[in-house]
Structure to design on (183 residues):
């Protein structure tokens, strides 16, 4: 938890690290101030964006996963727009009168170009680094938005998660009389 002295956070802010208190530079102070904002930037309605900016195959894959986990849940019966709405991904900005996807919806289920228009600095990047640095091999596996997939967070997760879990040990667990492989 940062602490600042003398009323002005710039030049007077400290944060505790493992070996003691350290003075924060101005850039760190700006970041800490920005992070304390309690608004939900990802819930803002994106003007000019609509369902066509979402990768519907990503949304459908998510909905299948949701339905498999909770087959009796009432949200499984909703159409796409209402499903997005109950999940905070489609909102009405009552002040402006705009109705549409939120930034969260676009990041989670959007098409690559639409994501770049709304969040131009977002760049998803998975790199598997070599076990030993030979000075020549920078990475041995990499996933980036290269135009062959949507570039959204849900598809990124679906591509990266199997790689992260590939070498995890699976303990022997029975559910009833059946082995449960996914524990």
């Amino acid at each position: 938890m940062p602490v600042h002295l003398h009323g002005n956070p710039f030049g007077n802010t400290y944060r505790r690290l493992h070996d003691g208190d350290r003075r924060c530079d101005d850039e760190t102070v700006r970041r800490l101030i920005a992070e304390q904002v309690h608004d939900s930037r990802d819930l803002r309605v994106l003007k000019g964006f609509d369902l066509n900016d979402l990768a519907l195959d990503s949304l459908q894959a998510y909905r299948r996963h949701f339905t498999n986990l909770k087959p009796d849940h009432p949200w499984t019966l909703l159409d796409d727009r209402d499903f997005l709405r109950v999940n905070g991904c489609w909102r009405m900005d009552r002040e402006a009168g705009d109705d549409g996807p939120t930034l969260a919806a676009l990041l989670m289920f959007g098409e690559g170009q639409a994501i770049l228009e709304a969040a131009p600095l977002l760049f998803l990047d998975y790199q598997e680094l070599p076990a030993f640095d030979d000075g020549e091999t920078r990475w041995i596996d990499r996933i980036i938005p290269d135009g062959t997939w949507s570039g959204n967070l849900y598809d990124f997760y679906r591509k990266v998660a199997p790689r992260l879990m590939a070498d995890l040990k699976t303990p022997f667990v029975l559910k009833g009389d059946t082995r449960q492989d996914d524990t």
Helices lie at 26-35, 56-69, 80-86, 103-109, 112-118, 153-165. The chain has a mean pLDDT of 88. The chain is about 30% helix and 15% strand.
